[in-house]
Design brief:
The complex is a heterodimer of chains A (about 350) and B (about 375).
Chain A (H helix, E strand, L loop, with lengths): L7 H28 L12 E5 L10 H16 L2 E5 L7 H10 L4 E5 L4 H10 L4 E5 L14 E6 L1 H15 L4 E6 L4 H17 L4 E6 L6 H13 L4 E5 L5 H10 L4 E6 L10 E7 L1 H13 L6 E5 L6 E3 L9 H15 L9 H5 L7
Helix pairs in contact in A: 2-9, 3-4, 5-6, 5-10, 7-8
Chain B lengths: L4 H10 L2 H25 L4 H13 L2 H26 L7 H18 L4 H30 L3 H20 L35 H18 L1 H11 L1 H6 L4 H28 L10 H11 L4 H23 L5 H36 L5 H12 L1
The chains are: A alpha/beta (about 350), B mainly alpha (about 375).
């Protein structure tokens, strides 16, 4: 396993060349140091609305993209600049949040419950910085929420309730399917709200549930949706992020007659002929709302719960043209009843089992 | 058994510090140079990009500390891969063993009520033991039934991911009531203490450095390490010389698993303080590239892990000057590509030099001997 290398000087020349190469790259880097000064204080200056993504990063057609939309809308309507720092992994959350704070952000928005610990850690170290945490609440060791973190929680079940009513009224087979990403509390809220809506609109219909185990396996999403259709379901509700793309694919393959109910935003273009509606969640609006408060000097921390009453969740109404007037009417009534507190939509399986439909 | 010629040549190199350091730096330089056109395509210039990368990774104390934090799991994972490689085993299951190690450490940290002095060691050792246990079945299957470890360890990765997801799903044994896809925080006594106030460097870093020394000492200074390398070089010869090949293989794969488990435990007990389902972005897979780039020597793995740690830490700096963090993936992808191409490149280099040597000595000793030499470099 030895090489008959005799001319040592050649080897040394090679090493020397390689080292020079690397060093010159380093040297070039140092000269760049002076030119691009970004950090420092913009406090008091124009606003900087920062966003730190979770490990999925931008382009997820979901949470992170919506958060980006939120900071961009903030920059547009409140002035200043929007900045997005993407995280590649769990271990980058803290340094990315630190960077956002160090660059003098007016507020730092973090999307996803996965960032809860990291936001808590950084927010404690920087009590004068303001944070917006979507889908989680930052609490200290004693369980008290931090005053400089606005933790936004959506009442997804209220949106899904309306979608469930539409689905319950639309189904012809009285069989519905559900494809979830991971069995997380927010996904479960979507499911239970949907089940309650179906129960409300069509007590004889049933919902088959299935989970992908992740939020990106669209091939498996297609497989699960196809299995639902094969079992007689004609509507599938997807709460599976990127994995949900497979659900639209499965519906398109089946052609007209089967429907998909989406999540977060109207994504009609994914399957125009099969798009029933979506249970929406206005992440950009919620971010903008908190940033507006910060701009006005009225920022408050703690848990902020947003639902139908705040018009922060709802259903995709772009597809309403194709719905019978009776269904639209029912949705409007339910919206009012939930908004006014007349109907409390269940958010856990336990609450669902005790839920009895009442006429809205 | 599938023989991997690429690894042979790497092992040959490890005994030649100058050539190995040269090819290490050469691989890096080639990858960084190959990324330059892509950087221009992305609308910026290499000076800005690499400058930001350096500033974000070694520019100040905090940046440097982040490089260390990011490199730690890669280093221990890389050692795990390297240890198995020395015994001729390709452990692709480091990722799964790392996950199981983290899970076990968290289970001990959350559920046991022990005095602080023993809680931490018990949690760390349980993590390592769980990693070893996760490697045990593939090891036994390999040693006794000849089932290829590449297949079994990959399969065990999926089992580990499933186990992790199951345990932290609602109703799972480790699930936290307040934080989705995570366990409850581990007891303070089970945390690997932080080393400084302002950075995230934790004492898992010390464990990693200890692991470098321990693996180096074991491989090159103990009879057991010699036997292990002998089995890796040629199991038949090793067997003729009275080495229990099966025992060595089982020990090597389980030792590799223990290191992987340690890497997971150190992240959970040091960095996060609770088990998080997605805590590893694929450390165990990056570790394979790191082990190969480090030519399977502990110091080489240390250097390679430091480089990948710089890439991970530098992504913040890159983004602060408006460059997409995808550039990091491009550079690390290129490094992996050049590492894979290294044997061929070195082979070509040696062939060329042989040819020149031959033509310098005389016309008669030209093509044929050069060819033979080039082939021997691959064996």
């Amino acid at each position: 396993m030895t090489y008959p290398i005799r001319r040592r000087y050649r080897r040394r020349t090679a090493i020397l060349l390689f080292s020079l190469f690397t060093l010159s790259a380093c040297g070039g880097g140092e000269s760049g140091n002076g030119t691009a000064g970004n950090g420092g204080s913009t406090a008091g200056g124009p606003h900087l609305w920062s966003l730190v993504t979770d490990a999925n990063g931008l382009g997820d057609q979901g949470f992170n993209d919506l958060g980006k939309q939120g900071v961009e809308e903030s920059a547009e309507s409140l002035g200043g600049k929007a900045s997005v720092i993407q995280s590649g992994s769990q271990s980058q959350f803290v340094p990315n949040l630190q960077q956002a704070v160090a660059s003098g952000s007016t507020t730092v928005t973090a999307v996803g419950f996965a960032l809860a610990d990291a936001v808590t850690q950084v927010a404690k170290a920087h009590p004068n910085s303001r944070f917006i945490l979507v889908d989680a609440v930052a609490v200290d060791a004693a369980g008290k929420s931090l005053p400089n973190v606005a933790g936004i929680r959506f009442r997804e079940h209220e949106a899904a309730f309306l979608a469930g009513i539409i689905a319950g009224k639309t189904t012809k087979t009285n069989k519905l399917g559900f494809v979830g990403g991971v069995e997380l509390p927010s996904v479960v809220r979507f499911l239970t709200g949907f089940q309650a809506g179906v129960k409300q609109a069509n007590p004889s219909a049933s919902v088959r549930t299935a989970y992908l185990g992740n939020f990106n396996d669209s091939a498996k999403g297609k497989g699960l949706a196809t299995a639902h259709f094969d079992a007689g379901a004609d509507i599938v509700f997807e709460v599976a992020g990127g994995g949900g793309l497979g659900v639209y694919d499965a519906a398109k393959t089946r052609g007209p007659g089967v429907w998909v109910v989406g999540t977060d935003t109207c994504k009609q273009r994914l399957a125009p002929d099969n798009y029933l509606t979506a249970a929406t969640k206005d992440v950009p609006g919620a971010v903008l709302r908190q940033n507006q408060a910060a701009a006005d000097g009225k920022f408050t921390g703690g848990e902020i719960s947003l639902g139908l009453a705040e018009k922060a969740v709802g259903v995709c109404e772009e597809t309403f043209a194709g719905l019978p007037a009776e269904v639209k009417d029912l949705v409007e009534k339910a919206k009012e009843a939930v908004g006014s507190g007349k109907i409390t939509v269940p958010s856990t399986p336990d609450e669902l089992s005790r839920f009895t439909p009442t006429a809205p | 058994m599938i023989r991997l010629p690429a690894i042979k040549i790497q092992q040959g190199l490890s005994s030649r510090p100058f050539l190995s350091a040269g090819s290490f730096l050469g691989t890096l330089a080639l990858a960084l140079a190959a990324a330059v056109p892509l950087i221009y395509l992305a609308g910026t210039d290499p000076v800005t990009a690499y400058g930001a990368l350096l500033r974000g990774s070694v520019g100040d104390q905090y940046a440097l500390s982040e490089t260390v934090v990011q490199a730690t799991p890669l280093l221990v994972g890389g050692l795990a891969v390297a240890l198995a490689f020395h015994a001729g085993l390709f452990n692709i299951g480091v990722e799964g063993q790392l996950v199981v190690g983290g899970l076990a450490a968290a289970a001990v940290g959350v559920n046991l009520d022990l005095p602080a002095a023993v809680h931490l060691p018990v949690a760390v050792l349980t993590g390592a033991a769980a990693g070893a246990a996760w490697a045990a079945i593939p090891a036994v299957l390999k040693a006794w039934r000849g089932v290829h470890e590449v297949v079994t360890t990959i399969m065990f990765n999926y089992l580990a991911f499933g186990l992790s997801r199951h345990l932290v799903a609602p109703g799972g044994g480790l699930a936290s009531a307040t934080q989705p896809s995570a366990s409850d925080p581990v007891a303070d006594g089970a945390r690997l203490p932080a080393l400084t106030e302002t950075t995230r460097i934790h004492s898992g870093v010390l464990l990693a450095v200890a692991a470098v020394i321990a693996v180096g000492w074991f491989l090159y200074r103990t009879p057991a390490g010699f036997k292990l390398r002998m089995v890796g070089a040629n199991p038949t010869t090793a067997s003729f010389h009275g080495v229990g090949v099966r025992r060595v293989q089982i020990g090597a794969l389980m030792g590799s698993g223990a290191l992987a488990g340690l890497a997971g435990a150190s992240e959970i007990l040091g960095l996060y303080g609770r088990y998080l389902d997605s805590f590893s972005p694929g450390y165990g897979f990056q570790a394979i590239a790191i082990a190969l780039m480090g030519m399977l020597t502990p110091l080489g793995v240390l250097a390679a892990a430091a480089f990948f740690g710089m890439l991970a830490a530098g992504s913040v700096g890159l983004q602060s000057v408006g460059i997409s963090r995808e550039l990091i993936n491009v550079v690390s992808g290129l490094v992996v590509g050049f590492v894979a191409a290294q044997p061929a490149l070195i082979g070509a280099y040696l062939r060329r030099r042989r040819k020149r040597q031959a033509s310098g000595q005389g016309e008669d000793a030209s093509a044929a001997p050069a060819d033979v030499d080039a082939r021997s470099a691959h064996v």
